[in-house]
Amino acid sequence: MTRVVVVGSANLDLGVAVPHLPAPGETVLGDDVAALPGGKGSNQAVAACRLGVETRFFAAIGDDRFGDDVRAALAAEGVPLDHLTTVEGVATGVALIVVDPAG
């Protein structure tokens, strides 16, 4: 059986739709904010699990609500959590993803 080990990030992605990308110094109001698990490592681990590959994922999250959300999402995808470390007093990584109408 093929096995995959992933060492990488586990973040919470905050995606927001905007009418256009902001110019320097410009404020653009957004719609439809979505909070989804992300991070390059997390995405790779989920993809491997979805393919039925035995996967080990090494990453760290914070002891905050976002970390709880990421942990729950990984568990729901079948990613083993044995090597997902929670670090006390640290915030989980967050990525802001701004999407214009062109995608």
UniProtKB/TrEMBL annotation:
Coiled-coil region(s): none
InterPro entries: PfkB_dom, Ribo/fructo_kinase, Ribokinase-like
SUPFAM superfamilies according to UniProt: Ribokinase-like
Record key words, sorted: Kinase, Transferase
Span of domain Carbohydrate kinase PfkB: 1-102
Pfam families: PfkB
Protein name: Carbohydrate kinase PfkB domain-containing protein
